[in-house]
Design a protein that fits this description.
The structure is a single chain. Helix 9 links the parallel strand 6 and strand 7 (191-194). The chain folds into two domains: 11-135 and 262-329, 3-Layer(aba) Sandwich (D-Maltodextrin-Binding Protein, domain 2); 137-234, Periplasmic binding protein-like II (D-Maltodextrin-Binding Protein, domain 2, 3-Layer(aba) Sandwich), CATH 3.40.190.10. The chain is α/β, with parallel strands linked by helices. It contains 14 helices and eleven strands. The strands form two sheets. A six-stranded mixed sheet has the order 2-1-3-10-4-11, sandwiched between helices. Strands 7-6-8-5-9 form a five-stranded mixed sheet, with helices on both faces. The relative contact order is 0.21. The chain starts with 10 loop residues before the first helix and ends in a 5-residue tail after the last helix. The protein is globular, with a radius of gyration of 20 Å. The longest helix is centred in the C-terminal third of the chain and has 22 residues, at 308-329. 44% of the residues lie in helices and 18% in strands.
């Protein structure tokens, strides 16, 4: 059986591309781009409900752009259809740099394979501006679940087949795929319940309607710290600085599952190159601000160095990796 080791945000890759620079536009183009960006309100579309990492990053970006340009910047949460409603909105927007999209990895690297009839084409309809941040993912359970570690959870699902479910932000999300890889690696008997976003999945887990959730650490951390969820393992290669006591799946004896969430910034493909380049540079400034870094760290998010061509290549490579996983395991959107 195909057993990939999914180094989706490998440290070696990041170290290599962190020093890469995108082509520096001529000074005249810089000035023209900055002048154009000062001519209207920024609209950042977050295609998932408030409360998750997409929303947090969108609001940090809005605050930073408002500070840089003295223009208002609003965040529009447009959930629905696994993010497709918000994505289509940006696809059809004017390419003037004022309407942009913040979206998780799955919509741009998993869904093109999992859902061949998507209403958008990542390469043709969007400019991949920057990877904003990455975050570890956790597997957590409702406190009444009698499992204190991941091996106990696996045993419990096998002892009570068909009775336990896990929630994810939606079919085709990286967390859905993480759950399916976990089931494949362990034989755990878990039913997948997709939601319109992590917030809804979290609410049902906190209410006891489902027993297990696969979620990004920034979203789950407050409930874990409050004792309302019990974190059993992380799906990445490294422990989290905000949840240092929680082992990785590999440390807990489960190999072959290494999935890290990341979030990117996109523009309509009609956007001029000088404006896309200017916004990429703006992202560097915003994410490098000490106050922003502190907020990201407190949320369990790590800023990313990937911009423009380096980001586009990374995204294309990851799409190929997920395509192999999906086809090898026969995973469908149904």
């Amino acid at each position: 059986m195909f057993k990939p080791s999914l180094r989706l945000v490998a440290g070696a890759l990041l170290a290599t591309v962190a020093t890469a620079s995108f082509a520096q536009a001529p000074a005249a183009d810089d000035a023209a781009a900055q002048a154009a960006l000062k001519q209207g309100q920024f609209r950042i579309v977050a295609p998932f409900p408030p409360g998750g990492p997409v929303d947090v990053l969108s609001r940090l970006l809005a605050t930073g752009l408002q500070h840089l340009y003295g223009q208002s910047a609003v965040v529009e949460n447009r959930p629905g259809a696994n993010g497709n409603i918000g994505i289509e909105l940006v696809k059809r927007a004017a390419g003037d740099g004022h309407t942009m999209l913040v979206v998780p990895a799955g919509n741009m690297t998993i869904n093109p394979t999992l859902m061949p009839n998507l209403p958008y084409n990542v390469e043709k309809d969007f400019i991949s501006v920057a990877m904003l941040a990455k975050a570890p993912n956790a597997i957590a359970v409702f406190p009444s679940v009698p499992a204190r570690n991941i091996q106990e959870l696996i045993a419990l699902t096998k002892a009570k087949p068909g009775t336990m479910a896990y929630g994810s932000p939606g079919v085709g999300s990286g967390l859905h795929l993480a759950g399916e890889l976990f089931k494949d690696a362990t034989g755990a008997d878990l039913l997948h319940v997709p939601y319109k976003g992590t917030t809804q999945a979290l609410n049902d887990t906190l209410g006891g309607q489902i027993q297990v959730i696969f979620g990004a650490v920034p979203t789950l951390m407050p409930q874990i710290k409050a004792g309302k969820l019990r974190a059993l393992a992380l799906t990445g290669a490294d422990r989290s600085s905000v949840l240092p006591e929680v082992p990785t799946l590999a440390q807990a004896g489960v190999e072959g599952v290494n999935v890290v969430s990341w979030y990117g910034l996109y523009l309509p493909s009609s956007t001029p190159a000088n404006i896309a380049g200017q916004l990429a540079r703006d992202v560097t400034k915003i994410l490098g601000d000490p106050a922003t870094l502190e907020t990201l760290k407190a949320q369990g998010l790590d800023p990313s160095p990937l911009r423009l061509e380096a980001f586009r290549k990374f995204q294309a490579d990851e799409t190929k990796t997920w395509e192999k996983v999906i086809k090898a395991r026969g995973i469908t959107a149904g």
